[in-house]
Amino acid sequence: MGYHRAGFEVVGVDIKPQPRFPCAFVQADALEYVAQHGREFDAIHASPPCQAFTTARVIYGREHPDLLTPTRKMLEETGKPWVIENVPQAPMRADLVLCGSMFGQPRLKRHRWFELSWPFFALVPACQHARKLVSVFGHGGHVYPGVADWREVMGIDWMTRDELAQAIPPAYTEYIGRRILEFATKTAKV
After folding, report:
1. Secondary structure of 143-154 as H, E, C letters
2. H/E element, 78
3. How many folded domains does the chain comprise?
4. Which of 23, 137, 163, 172 is most buried, by the most CB atoms less than 10 A from its CB?
């Protein structure tokens, strides 16, 4: 939704159905889709599953595949500007670190790392958390304030609890989308 608000025509791709996705959606393996269609897009954002890099993996003793590495390789092959989003702890460059408190939601503590294929020179707002935080994370077994609180602090009113646990607040991707457009404009003038 954030990229849409920034001015992009958005196409979401996921191997699982996403009936509440607010833009065009294709159900497919994302890596295969990028290999076949990546060059058709102006920019690509990828959020490979983070479970392989989360603290919860250690707690629950579950193994998950690293899809970040093949995602990066596939994106590099497109020659298009790209963004990879994941959790802190993921094996990636943190070219940009965003949090809800940077976008008018001091109660939202949801740090996300973004690796970028293009130079990023914008000033990033400071991260400042309120005393009473709402953390949005994981599946099952966690105590959380409630879906209504998650929806409010994330700025997402169309998702279920499990979808919110995996989501990026639209404010983050709107911010990045505007920077991609600035980069594309500068590059086109050179």
Report:
1. CCCCHHHHHHHH
2. helix 68-78
3. 1
4. 172
